[in-house]
């Protein structure tokens, strides 16, 4: 099972009950309707950060903002045969302050369910087909 998010109001309520020091973690958890682990985590956050709020998640911020995503999406839709490398170079020339790689373009387009362009398969013309085509064209020349 996944982690359920707890509202800030509930965290503040837990924090107030912890400050009273009259109830155990288990009693507070039953009273508020959360797990005992949630009460322990709220206590730890309160001790470390001075606030019952959950700490921010670590991680690198995304390189493509909403504006950049729209631009890249429109560019890919306008010319679906363009390669990811070419899309990346055009994007980099358009927006000087952000540099992206072809892998970033590929990951973004995959997330938007735009796959790689594949040329439609057509059968090769046989010799007899070429002769028939030439005959057909000569009949309709004039």
From TrEMBL:
Occurrences of domain Transposase Tc1-like (ranges): 72-142
Coiled coil (residue ranges): none
One GO BP: DNA transposition
InterPro entries, alphabetized: Homeodomain-like_sf, Transposase_Tc1-like
One Gene Ontology MF term: DNA binding
Keywords of the record: DNA-binding, Homeobox
Protein known as: Homeodomain-like DNA binding domain-containing transcription factor
């Amino acid at each position: 099972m996944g982690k359920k998010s707890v509202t800030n109001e509930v965290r503040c309520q837990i924090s107030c009950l912890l400050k009273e020091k009259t109830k155990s973690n288990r009693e507070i958890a039953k009273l508020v309707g959360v797990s005992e682990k949630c009460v322990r985590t709220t206590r730890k956050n309160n001790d470390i950060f001075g606030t019952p709020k959950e700490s921010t998640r670590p991680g690198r911020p995304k390189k493509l903002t909403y504006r950049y995503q729209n631009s890249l999406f429109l560019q890919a839709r306008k010319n679906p045969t363009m390669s990811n490398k070419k899309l990346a170079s055009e994007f980099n020339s358009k927006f000087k302050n952000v540099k992206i790689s072809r892998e970033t373009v590929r990951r973004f387009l995959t997330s938007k369910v735009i796959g790689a362009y594949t040329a439609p398969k057509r059968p090769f013309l046989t010799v007899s087909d070429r002769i028939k085509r030439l005959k057909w064209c000569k009949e309709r020349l004039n």
